[in-house]
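Format notes (please read before filing issues)

Several people have asked whether sequences and structure tokens are stored in separate files. They are not. Every record keeps both together, in the order shown below: the sequence lines, then the token lines. Line labels are part of the format and must not be stripped during preprocessing.
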Amino acid sequence: MSAAVTPAMGVDVMKQRMEQALMDVSDRFFLFASDRDPQAVEYATGKHFSKGSFKALDLEIPDVQVGTHANGSPRYMDAQDFWWEHKGYPKRVVTAMTFEPLPHVGADGKQIEDDRMSPTYNMWFRLREGMVKPDLSATSADIEPFTRFLGRLAGGARDEGGVGLKALLCWTASLYLRPHIKILHVPVLHSPEEGVGKSAFIELLRAMLGSGLVNSVEGAALKSKFQSSLWPYLVVGVNEVSAVRDPDTAGRLKTLITDPFMRIEVKQVTAHDNVPNYLQFVYTSNDLNCVALSGIGERRHLILACDETPMTPADYRAIVGWMQNGGAAKVAGVLVKTFGYDGKGFESIGWDAKARPPVTDAKLDMFEESMSPLAKFIKAKIDRREKPFEKDLGDIDDLVQILSLDSQAVLAAQKLTVNKDTLPPALRQAGVTHIRTSRVKGYAHWCWRNAAEWGKKTPQERRDHAARPGASLHAIEGGKQP
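Then the structure lines:
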């Protein structure tokens, strides 16, 4: 609040001052009329203010004359109070707040702007301002520190063919170029040693996307019912995700990775169901068994492992400092030129945000670690082609019977139980595919070898093979054993 305007003014001038005060406040704030007490929200910061705290702000806007007293002296009103009580243009009253990332440009090639009179406020319009502007003069050579660092996280020399590096680079590029397209898998950055640079990756994302779109939390913090650590953010780094062990929290995280909608319960914002879900995660951990993998081909996790020696503090400061001081703009520029805002560059190299991530060596290691004892027992028998896994597939009843009889002593020694309840989940963990194209008993099979080819066969052909002793599909058809 500042000094009042000069008392002597005509009606037209007084009206102009009122309109100017309304415009000045409305350019900076809107009124959020939620189910709770109304709050003024600042566009630039997203901060919420009650009526009292809003009035206490010094906006350096003069008080406005709203009339005269009975004695003819001017009657003034604080600009914030006047705005709060005003109804209609130019004051914006918002009844719903959402977070829905939009493309960088619309169909007309221009940036999509906020409709300042819409009753729904999309926080994306404020948060996108923190995204770095791309330096389109940059070349691939200019971002070598960035690609070298990503290669380190992806496994270095162990990343055969650069599969992990390509997947992580595409994930990062899509996040920046197409924030409105949800990627249906999460990078899991694992290392046996601390300090290899996993947390630095979050800082690199923050330099590209802005601090308003990136958050980082400890895994244990995700157990809270409030989601202020998750919403409204585009990406959340979860440090030591292995701390999430309880089934409810782990299950909620799985749905947040792939489900198109989410429930939000944030302080100062009314809880809502079916809110569009654009949230992406980055998991980090030093625990090899940090996430539960349902199978080798599961779709939610891009597993990467860094076996490099820990970074020195100077190394850490160098890569983060490089990104914060022009590197992020260069990276963004190269990503724009390589992949394009339309995503055609992703199509040309066969990367799809909705597809399963590649199976890396790190994923195989993590899957092996996460398998149950019974699943490990089964996988070993499959690898050695031991009965009943010398064929390609089998019926669950036959598998239970043969394992119970032929491996009875081994199972008892390892305290493992094989029955129709325990065997199916163990088979899935061992990477065995359940093929069921008929509800008739005897036509559903578990296939541990040549699953794609057997999926094309008729139910009767699979049944005949399951009843035949010994041979695999390739041996039957004159091919070589895989």
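For reference, the curators noted about this record: The first strand starts at residue 29 and ends at 32. The two ends are 80 Å apart (CA to CA).
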